[in-house]
Amino acid sequence: MSTKFKTVITTAGAAKLAAATMPGGKKINLNVMAVGDGGGKLPEPDAGQTQLVNEVWRHTLNKISQDNRYSNYIVAELVIPPEVGGFWMRELGLYDDEGTLIAVANMAESYKPELAEGSGRAQTCRMVIIVSSVESVALSIDSTMVMATQDYVDDRLAEHEQSRRHPDATLKEKGFTQLSNATDSESETLAATPKAVKAAYDLADAKYTAQDATTTRKGIVQLSNATDSVSETLAATPKAVKVAYDLANAKYTAQEATTARKGIIQLSNATDSTSETLAATPKAVKTAMDNANGRLAKNSNGGDIPDKKQFARTIGAVTSTNITFNDASGWYKIATVVMPQATSTAVIKLYGGAGFNAGSPEQAAISELVLRAGNG
């Protein structure tokens, strides 16, 4: 009996495979498989084909690999999902990433139903091609376009569950870890059991007795949102602080100070200003104080005058006359005293010197005359 179903390398595919085996040749990247219905009948694959007789669907390969038993066999696999269907399948075409039909095959007739027909199923199509050198074909596919079959998923899950090929957990990565009941371990690769946690908790709970916080010591405290409380045992929450702040901020508008109200004011160093809207600085006050301290005090009645004689001359309270003593002795008029008020008292001091005596006509020994004005 002659072979009814077969796979044929196309002329274009053979040329590319031959070129790929040459030194420096480019590998063929097989990545797409197409399905056709053969135009209603089973077609005979021909090496001269560049496309299927009647293509009905195509998609990225789900898998491409080297056969486990025959090293020069390349197995390409396509999965048609359950939601795709409504057509007959009689032919397959294997394409590279440049759109060239590399191999074509016919297959046993099979109808691919779609879900709407009530019999949706996933369909897997495989094509095997024989090459002289497997190195001429890139055995890789785009994993983002792969669709896993249910059988494949179930097999991989079962394999994973039965294996111990799992990474250990670390401080940075998830993984498997061993449990431990130890309460004195410093391990960073073990996980504490609830029993270990309880033992540590019970130990800590027995040693520490929480105390309430006060204004004189640290401790635990209850939070409060109140803004009108006078409690000294509660702690204000940020919400309470914000409410109080917003209230204060809305009520107070800074105003300038005047002689009749408090407010904000500008400072001034001036000592000669008549402003009623500025405030004197300590520097200005000191300057004024130093100036006042240099003035005479009223209640001292001139007692704090350093040179009283000079002061009397300066204000014109005393007039004097310079005279020349032509004679060896005698009496001379040396001053005229003006009494400023009816009750004033004037003192005239007489000084001698250079062999001359000072006195008055009545009594030569007197060196000081006191005059007092009367009332008329």
Automatic annotation (TrEMBL):
Alphabetical list of InterPro entries matching this protein: Phage_lambda_Stf-r2 (IPR005068), Phage_Tail_Fiber_Structural (IPR051934), Phage_tail_fibre_N (IPR022225)
Keyword Nucleus listed? The answer is no
Q: Where does the protein end up?
A: Virion
Give residue spans, biased composition: Basic and acidic residues: 158-175
Q: Name one Pfam family in it.
A: Phage_tail_fib
UniProt keywords (A-Z) are: Host-virus interaction
One GO BP: virion attachment to host cell
Segments forming domain Phage tail fibre protein N-terminal: 1-151
Please give the organism: Salmonella enterica I
> What name is this protein filed under?
Phage tail protein
Biased amino acid composition, Polar residues = 177-190
For region Disordered, the annotated ranges are 158-191
